[in-house]
Amino acid sequence: MNRKVPSTLALSALAIALMMGGCGADPKAAAAKARTEYAAHNYLAAQTDLATAMAANPNDANLIELHARNALAMGDGIAAGASLEKLANLKKPDDFNRLIAEAALLRGQTQEALTALGDDKSAAGLRLRGLALLSQDNKAGAEQAFLAALATDPKHAPTLASLARLKLLNGDTATARSLTDQALAADGSLLDAMLVDGQVATAEGQLGKALAAYAKAGKEYPGNLPALTGQAGLLGDLGRTDELAALLSSFQGVTTDGTLAYLKARLASAKGDWTATRDILQASEDKLKDRDDAQVLYAQALTHIGQPEQARARLAPMLARHPESVVLRRELGKAQLAGGDAGGAVQTLTPFARSQTASVEDLRLLAKAAEAAGDSNAAFFAARARYPSPQSLGQALSAADAAMKASNWGNAITAYEQILALTDGRSPLVLNNMAWAQAQVGNKDKALQFAQRAIQVAPEDPSIMDTLGWLLFQSGSNQDRALDLLRRAAQKAPQNPTIAKHLAEAQRG
Fold first, then answer.
1. Signal peptide: which range, if any (predicted)?
2. Which of the two ends of the chain, N or C, has the fewest CB atoms closer than 10 A to its terminal CB?
3. Residue 336 confidence (pLDDT)
């Protein structure tokens, strides 16, 4: 239910294909091909071939039904509804009312969906009822419907995935993980199961696992936008711009909601090309006007290219609506400072001085604005930036330790970044743990860089030698040094099973 392709585009593509139908294409071959493509989850290709087949056989109930199911798989409730309306006068499948309900949900017509479901007590019907109630923000009713569906069929994978997403929405990550694993065990090829696996893994900080889940979904369901969005977002967060660029250029799906434009703009910003960032977002401004993340990125680009007043005009109303947002406060302060309004920047940024957990970056920005404004508190703000509160360091250390113990690599990286900013950046333990966390999310180059920094500070520490040796072995970049480090680490810590395991594997080659 989280696939969404704008119906107007889908219908226009169908109309074009229908007009082209009969121009040499074999309708029977096209129908057979469409069925194969649908089974392979290649819905875009199936849509084109179905149009060819239906142009020659406009009243074929089987083709109309397949078109409706294919449209639902693409998230197009309008196209699906049109085919189902036609099918109602021909041959209805057993799950006709559920198809009607799903199409209605995709169109945002919740009551129509509930009416279509009637008193359907099947697991599939109860799941759709739960989704309808969830769209009405009735979380309790939705959960009750999902649980009723699982009471009917405990291994109904779509319901397990839907309930997992609801649990994740409610902040219960542990239960969401359990339900997701059950959904994958019941049907590992289910799109919703793979997508919620990525969402839950992201919440757990298992970013490498999340990437793998989204990549698998994208491979098995070509052109799926949520799979692309999930994967692209993580690659962007991890700074893997080359992989992100390759992913975006290879995407063959359809989207007219600005998502692809936003992702391309994000890639341009990651490369430091702020003019391109602005141009990309400007071209899709109407489609992105309701997306705060796109508006913040647009404002950042405007500030970078020398148009801070325009950035302020975008950010100020957003901060008024969301005064708790650290990102909005920071970016508005930057825009004000760039526009020569240092006093306004101080006023915007001063709440950071009262925060016991403010980042060094934000404190330094405040200090810079105060100095430029000649503010009487400039010296205090400067000292606050040089000597962050013990609470902020303690909180970061505690968060990092908890994240490492929970294998929450995403949170661990965030915490260690804060610790490195709050200190002189020479703690071998922090550097070593950062190297390990970066490796777990697939950032191999960054992991090696941190491991090299750690061994420069503590060249004889067996754990640090093990980390660097193991990373070198896995990268294949310097096998001789990898073996030497692992052997020395094993000699210094002969009782350490992890080091022994790494050395044994490296020696096997």
1. 1-25
2. C
3. 98
Chain segment 17-34, per-residue pLDDT in tens: 444 444 456 899 999 999
Token pair of 92 as six digits: 């209805």
Which percentage of the chain shows pLDDT scores above 70? 94
Of 79, 100, 118, the domain-final residue: 118
Of 19-33, 136-150, 165-179, 285-299, the range with the lowest mean pLDDT is: 19-33
d(Cα 299, Cα 307) in Å, to the nearest integer?
9
| Cβ-contact 473, 486 below 8 angstroms | yes
Separation in Å, CA 14 to CA 52, 323, 504: 9, 46, 59
Query: Which residues, including other chains, have CB under 8 Å from residue 123's CB and lie 6 or more apart?
Result: 149, 150, 152, 153, 156, 159
Residue 176 included in any domain:
yes
pLDDT at residue number 388 = 62
Q: Return the closest-CA partner of residue 106 out of 76, 71, 65.
A: 76
Residue 100 CA to residue 87 CA, distance in Å, equals 11
- Contact yes or no for 100/29 (Cβ under 8 A): no
- CA 197 to each of CA 107, 213, 369, 416: distance values in angstroms, whole numbers, following the listed order: 26, 6, 43, 26
Task: Give the residue carrying structure tokens 């559920």.
Answer: 98
Structure tokens at 229: 């969005």
**Environment class of 386 (CB within 10 Å of its CB; exposed 0-12, middle 13-18, buried 19+):** exposed
- More confident site: 384 or 134: 134
CA-nearest of 218, 242, 221 to 230 is: 218
CATH of the domain at 66: 1.25.40.10
Q: Are 463 and 493 in contact (CB under 8 A)?
A: yes
- Mean pLDDT for 203-222 is 94
Q: Which domain holds residue 141?
A: 119-239
- Looking at residue 251, the DSSP 8-state letter turns out to be -
Residue owning tokens 């430029």 = 372
Domain boundary residue among 239, 264, 287? 239
Does residue 13 have a pLDDT over 70? Answer: no
Is residue 105 a contact partner of residue 128, using CB atoms and an 8 Å limit?
Answer: yes
Residue 438: pLDDT above 80? Answer: yes
Q: What is the pLDDT of residue 389?
A: 65
299 pLDDT exceeds 50?
A: yes
**Tokens at 348, concatenated:** 């915007």
- How much is the CA Rg of the chain, to the nearest whole Å? 27
Is the pTM for the entire model greater than 0.85? no
Q: What is the pLDDT of residue 2?
A: 41
